[in-house]
Design goal:
single chain, Metallo-beta-lactamase, Chain A
Length: 309
């Protein structure tokens, strides 16, 4: 892996100057409370007798952050965060994670530098201890990206650029880096793709990759039980070949109600339907909580929103 952040001193200064040209809009009606009830009776399971798992060693939250991404992973007593929603979601995420009792994230990943993935990341950095912070090796001139760099610098945190094929442990789970790009002409193409494996259960987290990147990783070990559908269900992702290779039982699309992009696209939904994948939308189902003992998977849909927009 490559260390970054201190080497970005000049870039931070440059971005800070650029930030003087940005106008910050503060929402006076910003939500200051979120629901704390994270369990419901709406439980599904892929085990044959629908038996509730008693000892959940892995929990994956696909948080309802509207038209954005944020995924919380707990493996034993270790925590990992993948993306942190839009700028307006940051305070809500901090409040939610604090109420869950989280004080430290062993790993934090900004899959790529778009606002709907790293918007709330500066709030996360400012409020929690962080072990390792991952981002692609790409600089942008946005205020959002600058805020992340400044927050990292203030906490004396270097950000690491993961290497394809690298793996690390989170509790008893293993995380493998399937892909990371550096094409600054399209930030979506830089998205960090990760596969989590816990015994016989696996999750694939895809950021906003397009079918172009999907084709590049077709020969990788991407078969997974649960797929975080790329780019909010855009028609430019989730090719049939890719979905067929992943062969998921479940798919989650993180998406906002009535969004201007018309996500998810009907083509994506139809492909998932053809492959008989049980598909959840955060816009319809709320926050999704997947729990597993390494063999079975339970899915809970809960009415929890951390969407600040």
């Amino acid at each position: 892996m490559r260390k970054r952040s201190k080497k970005f001193k000049s870039s931070i200064a440059f971005l800070f100057i650029l930030s003087l040209f940005f106008i910050l809009n503060i929402d006076n009606d910003f939500i200051d409370k979120i629901k704390t009830n994270i369990f419901s009776n709406n439980i599904e399971s892929n085990n044959h007798n629908n038996e509730k798992i008693e000892n959940n060693y892995l929990t994956v939250y696909f948080l309802d952050v509207g038209q954005a991404d944020s995924i919380l992973i707990k493996s034993e007593d270790k925590y990992m965060l993948i993306d942190a929603g839009n700028n307006a979601d940051g305070s809500l995420l901090v409040d939610y994670f604090t109420k869950l009792g989280i004080k430290k994230f062993d790993y934090v990943v900004g899959t790529h530098a778009h606002e709907d993935h790293i918007g709330g990341m500066d709030d996360i950095i400012n409020n929690f201890d962080i072990g390792t912070f991952y981002m692609p090796d790409v600089i942008t001139t946005t205020k959002t990206f600058e805020d992340v760099l400044v927050a990292l610098d203030n906490k004396n945190i270097y950000f690491d650029v993961p290497e394809i094929g690298e793996s690390f442990s989170l509790g008893e789970s293993t995380i493998e880096v399937i892909y990371v790009g550096n094409d600054d002409s399209d930030l979506n193409l830089t998205s960090i793709v990760l596969k989590l494996t816990y015994n016989d259960v696996s999750f694939l987290f895809t950021g906003d990759i397009s079918s172009e990147i999907e084709n590049l990783i077709l020969n990788s070990s991407i078969d997974s039980d649960v797929l975080k559908v790329a780019h909010h269900g855009s028609k430019y992702s989730s090719s049939f070949d890719f979905l067929n290779k992943v062969n998921p039982k479940y798919a989650v699309i993180s998406v906002g109600n009535n969004n201007s992009y018309n996500h998810p696209d009907d083509i994506t939904l139809e492909r998932l339907n053809q492959l008989k994948v049980k598909t959840y939308l955060t816009s319809k189902d709320g926050t999704l909580i997947f729990t597993s003992d390494g063999d079975r998977i339970n899915v809970q849909t809960v009415d929890v929103s951390v969407d600040g927009n």
